[in-house]
Design goal:
This protein is an alpha+beta fold. It contains 6 helices and 7 strands. It has a 7-stranded mixed β-sheet with strand order 1-2-3-4-5-7-6, with helices on both faces.
């Protein structure tokens, strides 16, 4: 089995879309809702969420990575410098714990039919490697710590155990919740 992870560029956009929006529904999130303010999405995409995401893929730091297993796209991680994720940068619920210019993970998606097969571990490693290759001093995620299985609709935030297995440690809590659970601040230092 061969695993590879690449930034979502214009050339890889359809692979990203196959993971998060296989039917290409126009009103789908397109992994923008937790990255940009609504007005920014509308302005960037001229009213199209898909177009907004396509334009993000042309930036210096594409908005995340796609994970492949044997050349098939199976996972997506929305990651970038916290300062470029404006919705997070302006959040009053998930505030920075210090002034370190971290990269943040705001969404993790494993393609239907590929869950519970080790994709998340490979996806997080690829996302961390992507951040490290751009000089990130640390990567943060904002998961929850569910007592059992997580509701799939809110699973995009990740779980504490998922991040711990990838070398992240709890460094704080937030005022944000997902599925009624407090979201943690988990960090992996890259220095």
């Amino acid at each position: 089995m061969r695993w590879e992870t690449y930034p979502v560029t214009a050339e890889r956009f359809d692979d990203f879309a196959d993971v998060i929006n296989r039917n290409r529904r126009a009103n789908h999130c397109w992994c923008l809702s937790h990255r940009l303010q609504a007005a920014e999405i509308d302005r960037l995409g001229d009213g199209s969420r898909e177009q907004a995401m396509r334009r993000l893929c042309d930036r210096e730091h594409p908005p995340g990575v796609v994970c492949y297993r044997d050349d098939e796209p199976v996972g997506w991680c929305n990651i970038g410098p916290r300062t470029e994720i404006t919705r997070l940068a302006r959040s009053r619920l998930i505030r920075p714990i210090d002034h370190l210019p971290v990269w943040s993970i705001v969404c993790i998606v494993v393609r239907a039919g590929h869950r519970r097969q080790g994709v998340t571990a490979r996806l997080l490693e690829g996302a961390v490697a992507y951040a490290a290759s751009h000089g990130a001093p640390a990567v943060e995620g904002y998961p929850v710590d569910p007592p059992g299985r997580m509701d799939v609709t809110m699973a995009f935030v990740g779980t504490r155990s998922m991040f711990e297995r990838a070398g992240f440690q709890v460094v704080g809590t937030t005022d944000a919740v997902a599925s009624g659970m407090t979201r943690l601040i988990m960090r992996r230092d890259l220095g």
